[in-house]
Amino acid sequence: MFVKIFKLFGVVGILSLAGCEATSDNNDDSSSDTAFCFTSRSALDYRAELALAACNRLLADPKNLSPEDLFEAYFNRGLTKREIGDLEGSKTDLQHAVELGSDRDDAIRMLAWTFRGLGEYRQSVELYTQAIKMAPNNWQGYLSRCVVLGFGMADHRSAVDDCQKAISLGHISDDTIFFTSHSLNQIGSFRETVELIDEHSDRDTVSARVYEEYILALIGLNDKIRAQRALEAAKSEYPSDNSFDELATSVERLQ
Q1: What are the backbone angles phi and psi of residue 217, rounded to the nearest 5°?
Q2: Which runs of consecutive H residues, i.e. helices, occur in 26-104?
Q3: Which of 171, 183, 245 is closest to 208 using CA atoms?
Q4: Which of 67, 91, 186, 223 has the fewest Cβ atoms surrounding its Cβ within 10 A?
Q5: What are phi and psi of 145, to 5 degrees?
Q6: In the chain, what's the furthest Cα-to-Cα distance?
Q7: Which of 38, 40, 7 has its CA nearest to residue 106?
Q8: Alpha-carbon dihedral of residues 179, 180, 181, 186, nearest 10 degrees?
Q9: From the first residue on, what is the mean pLDDT of each consecutive set of 10 residues in the chain (255 residues)?
Q10: Residue 247: partners with Cβ closer than 8 Å, 6 or more residues away
Q11: Cα torsion at 54, 59, 63, 65 (round to 10°)?
Q12: DSSP 155-203
């Protein structure tokens, strides 16, 4: 059930690898830098340090780049900087990218993600809201805003609305199920949590964190028998996960 959030990085992907090989044969350094800089984070041979160095070389003389390539260079360097933990640098580059590509909701979402990493939650929510207005049928904006609202700002009622919207748009994953159930539990909607997880438990293996929310909901409903069964199933599936030990104590205390 667990699908890592986001198509977030699909810029060039595997096709860029072929580009790297072709340009190296021609000793075209600029084209090679473009290929390395624009390589998707999901590419098999993606290396952050190579991508960063290539983007740095391209952006050392930005006037030689087309507007489209300038956008991609800032966009990809911003993503790479975030990858290596340079959040301030990521913010600066992604802000440049958004200025160059104000119609790109993916760039706005990526900038929002960096703001989230910096703990600047209000700015992050504002950017996700902007991206959602631009692409109202894209589940990514709703799920991402749900995460910030729930875990960043403790606005769990709004978080539930956003995560449920992502689910309604067809994105059923460990992320949507976990973040929705977590916020539902936080507002005491335990029965909704149980129904949500029961409905989607056959999609894929339920993750440990979803099991936790499920057991917590059953504890909230004072359903000792089902909580014990869920706890046994969770321990069987995730025997090395110690997070269930405290839950076991809570389950035993149920009447």
Answers
A1: -65, -40
A2: 29-37, 48-59, 67-83, 87-100
A3: 245
A4: 67
A5: -65, -35
A6: 75
A7: 7
A8: 90
A9: 36 35 45 84 83 93 92 96 96 97 96 98 98 97 98 98 96 94 98 95 81 97 97 93 92 93
A10: 212, 215, 216, 219, 231
A11: 40
A12: -HHHHHHHHHHHHHTT--SHHHHHHHHHHHHHTT-HHHHHHHHHHHTTS
DSSP 127-143: HHHHHHHH-TT-HHHHH
CA distance 117 to 88: 10
Rounded-to-integer distance, Cα 147 and Cα 178, Å = 10
Cα-Cα end-to-end distance for the chain: 32
Alpha-carbon span 77 to 90, nearest angstrom: 7
> Residues 213, 181: contact at Cβ < 8 Å?
yes
Both tokens of 65, joined, read 């780049």
Q: For residue 111, which amino acid is it?
A: L
Cα–Cα distance, 73 to 51 (Å, whole number): 10
pLDDT the model gives residue 33: 84
Handedness of CA 170, 175, 181, 182 (dihedral sign): negative
State how far the Cα of 156 lies from the Cα of 149, in Å rounded to an integer: 7
Query: What whole-number distance in Å separates Cα of residue 192 and Cα of residue 10?
Result: 34
The distance of Cα 128 from the centroid of its chain, to the nearest Å, equals: 12
Question: Residue 190 in contact with residue 220, Cβ under 8 Å?
Answer: yes
* pTM of the entire predicted model: 0.82
Q: Please, what sign has the CA dihedral across residues 112, 115, 116, 121?
A: negative
